Amino acid sequence: MKEKSSASQAFLILIMAIIVGFMLNAFSSKGVPLYTDYADRKKLDNTDSALNQYKNASEFKNNPYDTSAKTTPNTNNPNLTKEGFVRPQKINLDLAKVLFEKNALMVDARLAEEYNKGHVKGAVNIPLEEFVKLSDDEKEARMKQYNKDGIIIVYCNGGECDMSIDLAYAFAKIGFNATNIYLGGYKEWEEKGLPVQK
Amino acid sequence: MKDFLSSKYVQIVLQIIIGAVFLYASYNKLFDQQGFAKSIYGYKFIPDFLINIMAIIVPSLEFIAGIFLMFGLFRKGSSLIIIVLLSVFLVALVQAYARGLDIDCGCFGSDPAAKTTSTDILIRIFQDILLLAGAIIIFKFSRSKYYKNVNYTDTEILLSKNQEA
Questions:
Q1: CB under 8 Å to B86, separation ≥6 — which residues?
Q2: CATH 3.90.980.10 assigned to A38-197
Q3: Which residues on A lie below 8 Å from B154 (Cβ)?
Q4: To the nearest whole angstrom, how far is the Cα of A182 from the nearest Cα of chain B?
Q5: What is the tens place of the pLDDT at every residue in B57-95?
Q6: Model pTM?
Q7: Closest to B140 measured CA to CA, from A2, A91, A88
Q8: Mutation to test the A interface, candidates B26, B53, B60, most A Cβ within 10 Å
Q9: Contacts of A33 in chain B (CB under 8 A)
Q10: In whole angstroms, what is the distance from residue A79 CA to residue A6 CA?
Q11: Which residues of B touch A16 (CB under 8 A)?
C-alpha cells in the first residue's frame, strides 16, 4: 500500500513537471527545441578552399581594424542563415594559424583573469559573460572599432569550452560577416608552441 | 534508531533542508534550458536525443518535488523522485570523475565560464550522497499523518487494520 501510493504520487509529480517544464521552455528566452544535434555543434566546417585562398594572400582584403571600409551587404554570402546573419565558420588550427599570420582579429572569449594568465599574442579580451549581458546597441558600441567584414577568430579554452561558439554567433548577429571559431582554443595553440602573451 | 529517524523533528529538518536545496538548485535552471542542456552534454553520459528533454523536465521536477517536500506534501512521492534524481546525478558525477571530463557542473544553474576541477566533482559526489541518504530516510521512515498514534510501527497498524476488517 505504501509502495503503491509513492509510485502514484511520484507519477503525479512527474506529470506536473512535464507540463510546467514545457510551458516554461516555451516562454523562456533561453529555451530549447525538442532536439538539438550537439555533435554537429562542434563539427569543423570544410575550410580547405579558404586555407588555399589565404595561404597565398599577401594581405586581407578587409582588415578587421579598418573601420573606414564600408560594410558589404551579405546577401550573396553562401553562409547566410535564415535569420539574416552570416554563420560563423568552425576552423582548425592550420587555418587559424594562417589567418593569425595575416593579422586577423583574435578574440579571447574567456574571463579577464584567464586571459591575463595567458592569451594568443595580440588577442583582445571580450568575455562572453559580459558581452551577452549588453543590449544590442551596447554590443554595437563595444565592437565599433572593428570592421564588420574583417576576419575575426574567436577562441576560448578549447576542449569542451563553448564560449567561443556563443561569442562568435553574438558577433555574427550584430552584423559581423567573417567570424570564425577556433575550437582547439588556447590549450591547443599553446601546446603547438604558437605565439602567446602572458 | 528507527524511532529517531522517524521522529517528526528529524523528518521535518530533513524535509526542509533537502527541499530547500532542490528549490535553490532548480531556480537558475528553470529559465535557462540552453545552459542546462549544455551542462548535460558535457557529462557525455545521456544520449544526445534525450538531452533537451531532460533540460526541459528535470528543473521543474526538482522545483516541484522540492516545494512539496519542504511543505511536507506528497512526501513519499517527492522523496522518491528526489532519490531517483540524485541517483542519476551520482552516476553522472562518478563517471565524469572517472573519465576525467572537463565539465560545467550544472548543479545550480550553468555558469558559462565555470570550470569544475576534479576536487569539485568529489565534493559534489559527497554532497549528493548526503542528500541521497536524507531522501532515503524520508522515504523509508516518514509517517503518514493519517496514523494519529505515532508509537505504532507500520506492521502493527497493518495488523490492527486487518483485525478491524
A1: B128, B131, B132, B135
A2: no
A3: 2
A4: 17
A5: 999 999 999 999 999 999 999 999 999 999 999 999 999
A6: 0.69
A7: A2
A8: B60
A9: 52
A10: 53
A11: 60, 64
Quick check: B33 and A31 CB within 8 A? yes
Sign of the Cα torsion A89, A92, A96, A99 reads: negative
Average pLDDT over residues A182-198: 90
The upper half-sphere exposure of residue B95, i.e. CA atoms within 13 Å in the direction of its Cβ, equals 11
Average pLDDT, chain A: 85
- A-chain residues within 8 Å CB-CB of B22? none
Domain spans of chain B? 2-164
Chain A residue with minimum CA distance to B32: A30
**Confidence band, pLDDT 50/70/90 cuts, at residue A1:** very low
- Per-domain boundaries in chain A: 1-35, 38-197
pLDDT per position as a tens digit, A161-180: 788 998 999 999 998 988 99
Tell me how far apart the alpha carbons of residues A69 and A54 are, in angstroms, rounded to a whole number. 20
Q: Do A18 and B68 touch (CB under 8 A)?
A: no
Coil vs helix vs strand at A46: coil
